[in-house]
Structures are given as structure tokens and as C-alpha cells.
């Protein structure tokens, strides 16, 4: 089984920086678990919009989340600045599984003596692409699939799903 706790920055080809907000913290003084899913959504959709040319409001095809996961290794809290790494772990003809590594930025890590290359959390989700009007599963366009392939795991070819 994949050991997500060993993920390093170098495992992710695309990054988005996120500055935590006071409201991200919960009563325990760290970023609330639910916020991580906002982070995953932000980095995935930023990539889809900026690199794949998708427009969630106008595209003929959209990605619907069918499963999600997150494993937590060390806490993050306001005012940390985070680097969200994105890669693809599975790529099918109509579905893709994204993996997001959550890292403290180098500045935030230096203050807390944590290794900046070690993930604080690893999570992600699976999108199934559907026609936006009918919600029926559809194959990804060549452009979308090609740009998602750029995020495929660096160490080996991406696993292929049949969705």
C-alpha cells in the first residue's frame, strides 16, 4: 500500500499557495478538518481552469466528486502559509483521482522547526466527468486528458481506471 506519510514536495508537479485565515481554525487551535476539502477543491479547480481551459459555469462537461479521502500527519493553523501540491494518481477515460499534498511554506516551517518537504496531510478525491445538462458519464476531451496526464505520478505511469 502507498505510504502517503512519506510524500515530499518533489512528488507533486503543480502547486498553489494558500494563506490560512483565522476562521479556518477550530476550537482546538488548528485548521478544521473540513477546511482541507476546501483546499483540495481550490487547487484542483485552479488547475482545471488555468491549465485545462475548463469553465465550471459554461463547460459542456463537469467533474462530479464521487469519493474523497484525507490523512492527517501534523497540524497546521492560522497564520500558516500552505503550499498545496497536486498530482494525478489514477486516470481513466471519464474519471480521474487527484492527490493533494498539504505542505507548510518554507517561511511557516522555519518558524515551527518542521521539515518543509514533508506533507502535513495528504488527501484528494475522484472526479467522474459528466455532461453538464444530463449528468451522464462522458469521456474526457483530449485536451483535458492530456493536461491531466502532466500531473500523473512521476515515479510510474498512472494507474488506469475503467470509469
What keyword list fits this structure?
3 helices; five-stranded antiparallel beta sheet; alpha+beta; disordered C terminus; 5 strands; 31% strand; 163 residues; 21% helix
Unreliable spans: 155-163
Shape type: elongated
The arrangement of helices and strands along the chain is: EHEEEHEH
Largest sheet: 5 strands, antiparallel
How big is the Rg?
Answer: 16 Å
Terminus-to-terminus distance: 22 Å
How many beta-strand elements? 5
User: How many helical stretches?
Assistant: 3
Order of strands, widest sheet: 1-3-4-5-2
Helix/strand/pairing class, anyone?
alpha+beta
Give average pLDDT, whole number. Answer: 89
Please report which band the strand proportion falls in: under 5%, 5-15%, 15-25%, 25-35%, 35-45% or over 45%. Answer: 25-35%
* Helix percentage range: 10-25%
Amino acid at each position: 500500500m502507498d505510504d502517503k506519510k512519506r510524500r515530499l514536495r518533489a512528488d507533486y508537479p503543480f502547486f498553489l499557495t494558500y494563506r490560512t485565515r483565522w476562521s479556518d481554525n477550530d476550537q482546538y487551535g488548528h485548521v478544521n478538518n473540513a477546511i482541507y476539502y476546501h483546499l483540495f477543491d481550490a487547487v484542483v479547480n485552479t488547475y482545471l481552469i488555468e491549465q485545462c481551459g475548463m469553465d465550471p459555469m459554461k463547460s459542456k462537461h463537469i467533474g462530479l466528486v464521487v469519493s474523497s479521502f484525507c490523512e492527517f500527519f501534523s497540524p497546521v493553523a492560522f497564520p500558516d502559509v500552505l503550499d498545496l501540491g497536486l498530482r494525478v494518481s489514477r486516470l481513466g477515460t471519464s474519471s480521474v483521482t487527484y492527490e493533494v499534498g498539504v505542505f507548510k511554506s518554507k517561511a511557516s516551517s522555519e518558524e515551527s522547526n518542521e521539515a518543509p518537504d514533508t506533507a502535513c496531510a495528504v488527501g484528494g478525491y475522484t472526479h467522474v466527468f459528466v455532461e453538464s445538462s444530463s449528468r451522464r458519464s462522458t469521456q474526457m476531451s483530449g485536451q483535458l486528458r492530456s493536461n491531466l496526464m502532466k500531473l500523473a505520478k512521476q515515479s510510474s505511469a498512472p494507474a488506469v481506471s475503467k470509469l
